[in-house]
Design goal:
By secondary structure, this protein is an alpha/beta fold. The chain has one domain: Rossmann fold (3-Layer(aba) Sandwich), CATH 3.40.50.620. 39% of the residues lie in helices and 17% in strands. The chain contains 7 helices and 5 strands; from the N terminus they run αβαβααβαβαβα. The chain starts with 10 loop residues before the first helix and ends in an 8-residue tail after the last helix.
Amino acid sequence: MQIESPKILTIEEMRAERDKLVAQGKHLVFTNGCFDILHRGHITYLAFARNQGDALVVGLNTDASVKANKGDDRPINSEEDRAYVLGSLRAVDYIVLFGDKEPKDIIAKILPQVLVKGSDWAHYVSGREVVEANGGKVVLADMVEGRSTTNTIQRILQVYGKEGHSNG
């Protein structure tokens, strides 16, 4: 299935957009993630990231890379659905799907001026050295306590059980 959104670009298209932004003196912000079941923590995080520069590109893990990072039960939502939902958010200017376990290679190709990760990644930010070597900066975002996809899934399982619950 083809994803229909003007915000979803290939890496090559994103590089061209980055070049245009830089020529205009603007700063590109990059963040990445699975964004499987969108929740308040995600929305707060993406708004924070967008406020760190002039345009936000989200590196979105493909279904295969989510499985590699999170296990065989994930993602809950397909990459097409996750990209469509992210693309509807005002804070997100661009989306680039990537299939690697870490975003280091895509960061090296896009070369954002700002890299944002959640403070839960303070011990290791993939792509930090690339961004900083090119004069950019890494910003850590505070997390919203108790808001995560894992917590959401656990709550759903508590309420509906592993076999599910049908209410129409």
